[in-house]
Structure formats: C-alpha cells, structure tokens
Amino acid sequence: MPHGGVRVWRGRAPAGAPATPNSNPVTREMQGRPKSGYGCTVEPSSAHDWPDKSDEPASTVSRDGDAYASETVEHVPSRRRRNLLTCGVFFLALCLVSGVVAFMLYDRATRKDRGTPNVVVFQYIDAIFDQRDPSEAKLFECKASNGRAALDALLSEIEEREQRFDIRISVSTGTKFDTSVEGKSAQVKVDLIVTAPEANGERSRSTQFWQFDLRDEDGWRVCSAQRVP
Q: Which end of the chain is more exposed for a tag (fewer CB within 10 A), N or C?
C-alpha cells in the first residue's frame, strides 16, 4: 500500500471496488460509443459526414440556358428591327434616286432647246401649226414679241379651209435656213411648206418665204415673223 492510505490497483479493479471515473478523455469517448458484434467500436454517423445537396452550389446549367434563351429572344426582335430599318433606308434611297432620274428624264424630254436660232424657229412653227398650242408657242417668244399676228392670220386661213373640206393641213419648215447673227440679235429666213390633201388622194404643196427676227434672252426667242414677198 502506498503512502497516504490510498490503494492503487494496477490492471483490473477487484470485485467490489468502487468505480472511478476514467480521467482519459479519449477513453471516455470510446466508452460512450456503441460496439459491434465483433467488439469493435462503431463510429456514429453524423449528418455532416454525408454530402448534403443543399450545400452544393446550385447548377447553373438551367440558368445559363434560360439566360441564353432570354438573350436569343431579345436579339431576334433587335435583328428584325435592324433588318426592317435597313430595308426602309434602302427603299427610301431607291425612291429618291428613281425620283431624281425620272425628273432628269422628264426635264430633258420637255426642256425647250433654245440653243440656236434655227432650232427655235423650227419648234416655234411646230407649236403654232402642228400642236396648235398658243401657250407652247409663247415659250419661244421674246418679252416684246409682236410678230405672231401674221402667223395667226395664216393659221386662221388654214383652219377655215380644214373645216370647209374636212381635211387636215400641215405646215412645216424647209430644210434650208438662211441665218445671220449679230451679237444678241439674229435673223432667220426659211420656207414654210403648206401641205394639203386633195380629193384624188394626192397632196398639194405651196411654199411661202418667211423671215423671223430673234433675240438672245437666256436662249434664242422669236420677236417677230413676217412673210417675205
């Protein structure tokens, strides 16, 4: 027996000896665990020892898919708007170009050629006797024109014969123009050929010699016309 009257048992405590708590924490923990049928200690299963799906990061597949679908849905109307805008701009440009081309063609077709005195006299006679349009003829007259009276008298004579015989009489210029130009003034002498149909189907022609005085007023214009004996 050691000093102090305390008996210490080595190994296994004798029967009847009071149980003393084990001071070793590892031993106490092992004693508190259940044992298997083979005498081995069974480790208790802990809820934290198994993977918990709630702790796993949320799958981004569906979110990425939704995001891609959302972006696709947003991009489709955006591309459609761009396509419509492009088509609209192209159509507007096409209409603008077509309008400009049409205007240029119309202007070229309807523009009055006042470049030379001969051409002006030719168009002037055509407007009076062929088109019989006084407003068209006026486009070839100068501002102080007073020479259409003689041509109007000839036209009235022609229209009276047309009504009497139910025919159509034409007046045209000859091919030979006698033209003289001095500065902004010009004089043109040319034959007017009057053609009328006859009852036998043939055509009769008469020639009258005329003189036209012109002036350059932003292009040549007829100021007077008279028949030369």
A: C
Determine the Cα–Cα distance for residues 24 and 44; give it in Å rounded to an integer: 20
The domain of 148 spans: 117-227
Q: What are the tokens at 170?
A: 């034409």
- Measured CA to CA, the distance from residue 172 to residue 212 in angstroms comes to 14
Stretch 74-94: mean pLDDT: 75
- 140 and 98 in one domain? no
Asked if residues 203 and 162 have their Cβ atoms less than 8 Å apart, the reply is: no
The residue to which tokens 């088109």 are assigned: 131
Instruction: Give the chain's radius of gyration (CA, Å).
Output: 60
Same domain, 187 and 125: yes
The reply to whether 156 and 180 lie within a common domain is yes
Sheet holding 185-197: strands in order across?
170-182, 185-197, 203-216, 220-227
Nearest to 55 by CA among 47, 63, 44: 47
Q: What is the DSSP letter of 220?
A: E
Q: What is the pLDDT of residues 116-126, one digit of tens each?
A: 999 999 999 99
Separation between Cα atoms, residue 183 and residue 228, nearest integer Å: 24
Q: Confirm whether 163 is domain-assigned.
A: yes
Q: For residue range 18-59, what is the model confidence (pLDDT) as tens digits?
A: 555 555 554 555 555 555 555 555 555 554 455 555 555 554
Helix (H), strand (E) counts: the chain: 5, 4
Residue 68 has, within 13 A of its CA and on its CB side, a CA count of 6
User: Do residue 74 and residue 147 come from a single domain?
Assistant: no
pLDDT, residue 136, reads 94
Domain assignment present for residue 148? The answer is yes
